[in-house]
Design a protein that fits this description.
Helices cover about 45% and strands about 20% of the residues.
Length: about 170
């Protein structure tokens, strides 16, 4: 292949890549909104993806963020750690970040947040509710990629319908 042919391929592939990126982001948004609605209405979290001939190729699953324990009142939390775990407080009067991460990871996301060893409520901590899912995972089934490529190759999937390019009107 000549330099001119390679350059032409680069230009064409760049246009296609940019168009695919835009369409992909748009479709991801639509799927995410659809999954959120399906979960709210039907308690559905996953959807199986199939080709037009019903050949399964992937599974899309809503990714739910987990609730996390956070420091809601730094001063109250620091005072508690100073009293109960003085070796974990730094001279600048703050909880050592590494110890704080370890402690927060061990705690349950229930109000009030309590010390798992003493059962005492820990001042300054609260529970931050999980946000709405902001993403989903796409897991191709074994052979799914190959089935999609074959469907594109034989025309079962029409790339022109999947990826309408502006300025591509029929002559």
């Amino acid at each position: 292949m000549s330099l001119k042919e390679h350059a032409t391929r680069v230009a064409v592939l760049r246009v296609l890549r940019d168009a695919v990126d835009v369409e992909y982001q748009t479709e991801r948004h639509e799927v995410l909104e659809g999954l959120r609605a399906a979960r709210a209405e039907l308690n559905l979290k996953s959807v199986r993806v199939a080709l037009p001939d019903d050949t399964p190729v992937a599974t899309i699953t809503l990714v739910d963020p987990e609730p996390t324990v956070v420091v809601a009142d730094e001063e109250a939390f620091t005072a508690w750690v100073t009293e109960n775990h003085p070796g974990e407080v730094e001279t600048l009067v703050r909880v050592r970040p590494s110890w704080q991460r370890q402690l927060l990871a061990r705690l349950t996301c229930l109000e009030p947040v309590v010390d798992p060893y003493t059962g005492e409520a820990i001042p300054g901590l609260g529970v931050l509710s999980a946000s709405e899912p902001r993403s989903f995972s796409l897991r191709p089934l074994p052979g799914g990629r190959e089935r999609i490529a074959r469907a594109l190759h034989i025309g079962t999937l029409d790339l022109r319908r999947l990826l309408p390019l502006e300025g591509g009107e029929d002559p």
